[in-house]
Every structure is written in C-alpha cells, then in structure tokens.
Amino acid sequence: MYDVVIIGGGPCGLSTGLALQEKGLSYVIIEKEAIVNSIVNCPLHMTFYSTSDRLEIGNIPFLSQDVRPNRTELLKYYRLVTERQEINIKCYQKVNSISKNAASFTVHAEDRNGNTIPYEAKMIVIATGIFDTPRQLGVDGDNLAKVSHYYKEGHLYYGQHVTVVGGKNSAIEAAIDLYRNGAKVTLIHRGETVLEGIKPSLLLDMRNLLKKGKIDFHPNSSIAAIDESTIRINSSDGTVTLQNDYVFSLIGYQPNISLLQSIGIQTDLSSLVPSFNQETYESNVKNVFLSGVVTGGITNRVYIEDGRFHGMKIANEIAQRLSYVQSNL
Fold first, then answer.
1. N or C end of the chain: smaller count of CB under 10 Å?
2. In what order do the strands lie in the sheet with 216-218?
3. CATH class of the structural domain 2-133+253-327
4. CATH class assigned to 147-249
C-alpha cells in the first residue's frame, strides 16, 4: 500500500514524486515508456525554447552549455535527478485500468512481458501529459506506415517527397530540417500563414525558404486522403494530388481521455480540459489529482515550466489530508 501512485514519468510526474518524497510520503511512479518519454520523442538535435532554469525540478540546478538546453542535455539532467534523488519509478509498465476500493485505489499495470502488476494506494496523481496521444488526421490512409506523428531527424529522407502537416513550432522545425537534409518538402497548413506565433529562431529561416520557393507551401489546405505514393489535399485551388513518400502529421496532441473518463473525471468536450480544483489540483473524483500538461487539455496553455510546480501543491494537500486521517485514527 502506497500513499500515492503517480501515473506518468514525465518532468511533471517526477516533480510530483520529489514533492511527495520531501513530505515523507510513500509513492511510486508508473511510466509506460522511458522516463520523460515526451522529450525522448523530440527531434534529436532540438534546442528548447525554454531556458534551463525554467526546466528544473526539485530545486536541483540545471546548467546547460547555452542558455537554452538541447535534447541531449535535458534527458541527461532528468536521468541524473532520478538517480541521485532515488525517485521510485517503474518504467515500461502500462496502466490498463484503475479500480476504486472502499478506502483506496488499485492501479492495474502491465509490464512488457504481459504480466499484470497491481499497485494499491490511498490517492492517485495522473501526470500523463498529452504527447503520447497524437491527434489524428481522420482521413483514408492516415494509418499507413509512412505516416508519423513524431519527427526525429531529416537524414533518412534525403531525396524523398515529404509532406509536413501543421503550422506550429514542431511542424516548422521539421520542415526546415527536412529541407536542410535534402528532402523535397511540402508544408500543408489550414491557416493563411505559418509566420505568426512561431519561435523567433525559426521565423527568418522559414520566411526565406517560402519566399524562395524552397518549400512547397499550401495555406488554407487540409489532407483529404493518403495512399502509398501520393496525397490528395483540399485547397483554395480545389482538390490537388501530390507525389508523396512520407507524411509527418504534426497537428498537436491530446490527453488520454479514456483513462480520465474511466474513473469518472469530467472533461470539457471542446478543450479536453479536465475538471479539477485550481488550488489543490484535485479532480472532481475525490483523492484523484492531476499534475502537469494534462490539466491544459488541447489549449497549449500548460507547459513543463508551469506544470513542474503542480506537485508541490498536490503534496501539501495530500500531506495535510493524510495527517488529518492519522490524527483521527
């Protein structure tokens, strides 16, 4: 029996574990992949827009070579924190279900060998983030092997016809990197422009590439269908068929709504923001708390920089609540 089971081993889940540890509470973090898996899925050579101090957890300093760390530095930092602080985390265990008992919860996890492992706790913190659940295109062919929702690096796509769908930082960064690695890049965006609201470090490059026609840009457009050698798009010029070898659908991510709803957590249907107390981060289900990016739904208003502080409030509330229970036994 743990005081708390934390579901999700991203930065916000780790931060919550550290906060509980500081309060002397017993906990375990269950992560279905590697620690900070959302960062693992980032491009190999990515430099983060946030400064290193805004990505720190547990009051442990993070010093990077430059003001803004790269992916390798950030992964190393979170590994070191996990090891040195002896964070209790179980990786490669997927949570399949949560059941409510009389005075506790049982979290049913499954390891990579198919073994079921039950974890019992007085309270639960869900810190699953959103990056493990990509938003789908919802068109014919979007389940083909050539369609990916994560971008790693461009070298593999030299000389290939590659379509990037999206207009935010991740899509723009992928399109630029693909072009630099010799791919023939098509960029599709439902909006009028991709030059608004992106990182300043990307803006100049993208503006120049579009101006010179180095990237084939289709604004006000959407994917209609995908097959093995082409894509069909709906654009202001009508339906257009383009040669295509690979598609990167980088249109955003969303919370694992099925897990939340399975235990009765209410969710706004349009924003996918779950119901929770803004002060304690307790959901509408008693003794079930939410931490990190998952609290923002698809609004893109909550990031690591904000979510890393949720654990402190959660730990304070749980410590007070369990202390009250113990004093009344």
1. C
2. 147-148, 246-249, 161-165, 184-188, 216-218
3. alpha beta
4. alpha beta
